[in-house]
């Protein structure tokens, strides 16, 4: 059971990459998860689906540039150390 | 050992030096008294050294001469002052910025414990069935320190329990001839990784269900760290009494942790419902109840997963 912190970091990086790759127009709109489709009224309970959509959109916006950097570092490290 | 020639020069200074040079600066290279007598800058200390060498080990003489050399040299004096001012600046910088990364003052709250609190809390972790009042007392909007309220979360027990768990895991592996030092690090890292996964998963679910709770991240780490106590008990019993003892104690601790987590988290996550006692707006409260049950059920699972390979 070699579940180390390093493998956790790798898994987290892959998950964030997966979220960042979901394209807004081509994919999310087609399954009804586009961010302009989910804004309900100003009710008190946003609901899980709209929270998820907000989360996806904010991850894509915020993590775009840091992901480039972290991915480059990870690629170089994996090439060198394996 | 004293040539006697410069003792006269040293005599007027002798009165001052013993009071100043009380600090035994034991530099390994300077312990040889013969070397000092050739050093011209330590001419004042020669009489001092003659008095000291029969009695002591030459350390006061050793301390006299290099410091004499230091203070007599203005460049090294300046360098020392510059170095100490640099160190002071660095310390200031660290003190100013440490609060951004690690909330030191908040952490101090979680370590304000005493022996009685630890004893009562450990008893509560193993036997939570008779405890009636699970509310944390507040004092003017801030929660009371753990020292004064047994319901308050602390980080002392989880930290100590984690370290003890790693050590006990090493002990268990050693009794089965499977021990090697890097396995200790592997166990620690694995347990930490599972803790991180738990914290992230719970934070994500709290965000998705939009729970307005005062459960901070450190609180969550504290609550999730309490299961290490049960794990230690289980593994120790397994070492003493074999698999039967391990399963018995682990089962007991699993149920206790389950009840403990439900009763504690109910007050934090299901705050309104717990306060009124009436299920308001059933759907949302249902989700919160599911979350509490899931968190509480994950504890026994993780307790088993992290310890079953240690007891054979």
From TrEMBL, chain A:
GO process terms (BP): endoplasmic reticulum to Golgi vesicle-mediated transport; protein transport
A GO term from the CC aspect: COPII-coated ER to Golgi transport vesicle
Cleavable signal peptide: 1-18
Parts of the chain that traverse the membrane: 62-81
**Record's keyword terms, sorted:** Membrane, Protein transport, Signal, Transmembrane, Transmembrane helix, Transport
Domain of life here?
Eukaryota
Principal place where this protein is found?
Answer: membrane
The yes or no answer to whether the keyword Transmembrane is present is yes
Q: Name one Pfam family in it.
A: Yos1
Task: Tell me where in or outside the cell this protein is found.
Answer: Membrane
Q: What is the stated purpose of this protein?
A: Regulator of endoplasmic reticulum secretion that acts as a key determinant of brain size. Required for secretion of extracellular matrix proteins. Required for correct brain development by depositing sufficient extracellular matrix proteins for tissue integrity and the proliferation of neural progenitors. Acts as a regulator of the unfolded protein response (UPR).
> What family is this?
Belongs to the YOS1 family.
Q: What is this protein called?
A: Immediate early response 3-interacting protein 1
Q: To which species is this protein native?
A: Bos indicus (Zebu)
Automatic annotation (TrEMBL), chain B:
Provide ranges: composition bias, Basic residues.
13-23
Q: How does it sit in the membrane?
A: Multi-pass membrane protein
Q: Where is this region: Disordered?
A: 1-49
Q: Which Pfam families match?
A: YIF1 (PF03878)
Q: Which PANTHER family match?
A: PROTEIN YIF1B, YIP1 INTERACTING FACTOR HOMOLOG YIF1 PROTEIN
Family per UniProt?
Belongs to the YIF1 family.
Q: Does the keyword Transmembrane apply?
A: yes
Q: Which residues cross the membrane?
A: 155-174, 186-208, 220-240, 246-266, 287-306
Q: What InterPro entries is this protein classified in?
A: Yif1_fam
Q: What is this protein called?
A: Protein YIF1
What Gene Ontology terms for biological process does this UniProt record contain? endoplasmic reticulum to Golgi vesicle-mediated transport; protein transport
Q: Which UniProt keywords apply?
A: Endoplasmic reticulum, Golgi apparatus, Membrane, Protein transport, Transmembrane, Transmembrane helix, Transport
Protein origin, superkingdom: Eukaryota
Q: Name where it's found.
A: Endoplasmic reticulum membrane; Golgi apparatus membrane
Main location (coarse class): endoplasmic reticulum
Per the entry, what this protein does is:
Has a role in transport between endoplasmic reticulum and Golgi.
GO-annotated cellular components = COPII-coated ER to Golgi transport vesicle; endoplasmic reticulum membrane; endoplasmic reticulum-Golgi intermediate compartment; Golgi membrane
Q: Does the keyword Transport apply?
A: yes
């Amino acid at each position: 059971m070699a579940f180390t912190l390093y493998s956790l970091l790798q898994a987290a990086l892959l998950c964030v990459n997966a979220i960042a790759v979901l394209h807004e127009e081509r994919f999310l709109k087609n399954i009804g998860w586009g961010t302009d489709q989910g804004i309900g009224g100003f009710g008190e309970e946003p609901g899980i689906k709209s929270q998820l959509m907000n989360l996806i959109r904010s991850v894509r916006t915020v993590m775009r540039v840091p992901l480039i950097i972290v991915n480059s570092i990870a690629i170089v490290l994996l090439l060198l150390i394996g | 050992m004293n040539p006697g020639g410069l003792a006269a020069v040293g005599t007027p200074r002798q009165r001052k030096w013993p009071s100043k040079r009380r600090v035994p600066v034991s530099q390994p290279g300077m312990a040889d008294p013969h070397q000092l007598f050739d050093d011209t800058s330590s001419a004042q200390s020669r009489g001092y050294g003659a008095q000291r060498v029969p009695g002591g080990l030459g350390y006061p003489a050793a301390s006299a001469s290099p410091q004499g050399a230091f203070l007599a040299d203005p460049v090294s004096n300046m360098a020392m002052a510059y170095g100490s001012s640099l160190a002071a600046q660095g310390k200031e910088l660290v003190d100013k910025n440490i609060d951004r990364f690690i909330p030191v003052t908040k952490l101090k709250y979680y370590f304000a414990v005493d022996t009685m609190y630890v004893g009562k809390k450990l008893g509560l972790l193993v036997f939570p069935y008779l405890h009636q009042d699970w509310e944390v007392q507040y004092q003017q909007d801030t929660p009371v320190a753990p020292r004064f309220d047994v319901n308050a979360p602390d980080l002392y027990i989880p930290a100590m329990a984690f370290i003890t768990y790693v050590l006990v895991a090493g002990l268990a592996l050693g009794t089965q001839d499977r021990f090697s030092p890097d396995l200790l690090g592997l166990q620690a890292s694995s347990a930490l990784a599972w803790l991180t996964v738990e914290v992230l998963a719970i934070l994500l679910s709290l965000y998705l269900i939009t729970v307005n709770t005062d459960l901070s991240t450190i609180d969550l780490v504290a609550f999730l760290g309490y299961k290490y106590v049960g794990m230690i008990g289980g593994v120790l019993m397994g070492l003493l009494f074999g698999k039967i003892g391990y399963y018995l104690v682990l089962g007991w601790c699993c149920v206790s942790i389950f009840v403990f987590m439900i009763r504690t988290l109910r007050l934090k996550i299901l705050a309104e419902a717990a306060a009124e006692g009436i299920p308001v707006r059933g759907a949302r409260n249902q989700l919160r109840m599911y979350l509490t049950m899931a968190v509480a059920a994950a504890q026994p699972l993780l307790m088993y997963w992290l310890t079953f390979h240690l007891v054979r």
